[in-house]
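Thread amino acids onto this structure.
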């Protein structure tokens, strides 16, 4: 019997597996032992201080850590590795298909002590010429497929449910997230977020270890993390109580679809989402119908038809993904941390449409939470409106930016990106059926109309667009750009006027 130790994930297993294949050891003669926890970090506790942060020394520092992919070849067959035989001679090459390489790499992240044995059995059988081993009808193949599928799901979940929380200024990363991945996808997730968050530093802590991005490199550390300290640090934040209040206020029990909710936001993630702990209570309320009567009066009250828009007719519907999260109709998703859907009650009479999420919105996954959001909050406050009574959204749902040093600078979305996203805006309009749509800035105005017009001509002149009124005004970030205080005041006053006008048109008194 031969005992092989895997110390370092797929890359380490691969080397051992090749050694065993070269030696001709059948799977039944090999025992796989996994070495875990703290081995690579050299420290048991994670620290948020860069200086104290353990830096692993075995190739786990840097983006490619543990992911030296076998897929570099462009033919169908890929070379898993070239191994030197024990005696000098021709190197032995083991060639596997692209499909198998992907399956092995994904399944290697499946958290189970059996994974290395299964992977070796599959590789051994492949090497023996048994191609059925990659089929889902084969017992080993089926196990491999189901592990790879679970890992793909865990990757998706990590992408969707990691929530970064801004830390007080001080040493260490600017953002902190606590996440409990179902499989060993932390390294993968770290690369994903590093690509999307530019030079902004962060740390993702998990029960199994942590990933730290200092703006240039990823450092992965294994070993127990002080979960209570991380959670306490996150809970100390100011934004969470506000977000909880907001979430509670937009939750519409009359529209509750429990199975869709569970599908989109599996229960295991609730405890680490700011809004998570509220959900069971709100579902219970909805079930008991406590709020249903009050809400039903509002929901469906407006007959309104779909607003006809040129852009919508121009969209090829067949290419439309079914969820916003899965939308790949333009390239903006690649560099965004989160997709940012509209937020607010479906019963809102007034919808505000901005341009696209900014830096803060991209990190938080929520609309108008950054500097432009503060200007908007002030505008709404002066117009006497409670933000949570309105539906807030954007023409484009991903943040478009370019890196400038440590900063991610906003870039105006191109027309094709606005067109690509029009489906989602129309879907929100159709769902909410607002009496009035307030467009903030030129991009939003053009997106709602489906054609290019001059904001100057539309500002202060409400128009009918299908069943809704359209009120055009400036974007709040315009107020941030003007350096003259009097002009800034005039811009904000103009926006307040627009919201008040919308309120009159909607027949709605401010809250
Ligand atoms: N600017 C926008 O247009 N939308 C946001 O959500 C934030 C900034």
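Threaded sequence (511 positions):
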């Amino acid at each position: 019997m031969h005992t092989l130790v895997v110390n370092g994930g797929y890359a380490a297993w691969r080397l051992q597996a090749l050694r065993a294949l070269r030696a001709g050891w059948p799977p039944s003669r090999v025992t796989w032992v996994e070495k875990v926890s703290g081995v690579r970090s050299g420290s048991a506790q994670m620290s948020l201080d860069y200086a104290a942060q353990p830096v692993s020394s075995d190739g786990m520092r840097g983006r490619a850590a543990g992911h030296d992919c076998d897929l570099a070849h462009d033919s169908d067959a890929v070379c898993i590795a070239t191994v030197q035989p024990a005696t000098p001679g021709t190197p032995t090459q083991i060639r596997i298909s692209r499909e198998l390489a992907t399956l092995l790499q994904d399944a290697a992240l499946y958290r189970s002590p059996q994974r290395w044995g299964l992977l070796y059995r599959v590789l051994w059988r492949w090497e023996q010429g048994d191609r059925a081993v990659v089929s889902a009808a084969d017992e080993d193949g089926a196990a491999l497929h189901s592990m790879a599928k679970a890992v793909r799901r865990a990757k998706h979940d990590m992408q969707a449910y990691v929530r970064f929380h801004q830390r007080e200024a001080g040493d260490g990363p600017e953002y902190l997230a606590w996440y409990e991945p179902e499989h060993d996808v932390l390294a993968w997730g770290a690369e994903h977020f590093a690509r999307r968050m530019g030079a902004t530093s962060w740390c993702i802590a998990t029960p199994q270890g942590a990933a730290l991005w200092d703006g240039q490199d990823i450092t992965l550390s294994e070993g127990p993390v002080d979960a209570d300290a991380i959670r306490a640090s996150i809970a100390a934040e100011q934004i969470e109580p506000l977000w909880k209040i907001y979430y509670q206020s937009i939750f519409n029990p009359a529209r509750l679809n429990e199975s869709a909710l569970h599908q989109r936001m599996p229960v295991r993630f609730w405890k680490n989402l700011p809004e998570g702990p509220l959900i069971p209570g709100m579902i219970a309320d909805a079930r008991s119908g406590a709020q249903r009567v009050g809400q039903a009066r509002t929901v469906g009250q407006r007959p309104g038809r779909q607003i006809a828009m040129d852009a919508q007719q121009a969209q090829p519907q067949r290419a439309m993904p079914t969820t916003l999260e899965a939308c790949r109709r333009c390239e903006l998703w690649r560099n965004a941390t989160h997709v940012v859907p509209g937020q607010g009650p479906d019963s809102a009479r007034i919808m505000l449409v901005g341009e696209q999420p900014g830096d803060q919105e991209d990190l938080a996954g929520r609309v108008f939470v950054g500097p432009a959001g503060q200007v908007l909050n002030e505008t709404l406050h002066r117009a006497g409106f409670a933000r949570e009574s309105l539906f807030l959204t954007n023409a484009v749902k991903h943040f478009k930016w370019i890196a400038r040093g440590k900063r991610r600078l906003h870039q105006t979305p191109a027309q094709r990106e606005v067109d690509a996203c029009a489906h989602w805006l129309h879907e929100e309009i159709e769902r909410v059926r607002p009496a009035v749509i307030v467009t903030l800035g030129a991009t939003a105005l053009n997106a709602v109309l489906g054609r290019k017009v001059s904001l100057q001509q539309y500002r202060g002149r409400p128009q009918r667009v299908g069943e809704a009124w359209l009120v055009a005004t400036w974007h709040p970030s315009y107020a941030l750009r003007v350096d003259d205080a009097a002009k800034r005041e005039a811009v904000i006053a103009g926006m307040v006027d627009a919201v008040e006008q919308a309120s009159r048109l909607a027949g709605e008194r401010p809250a």
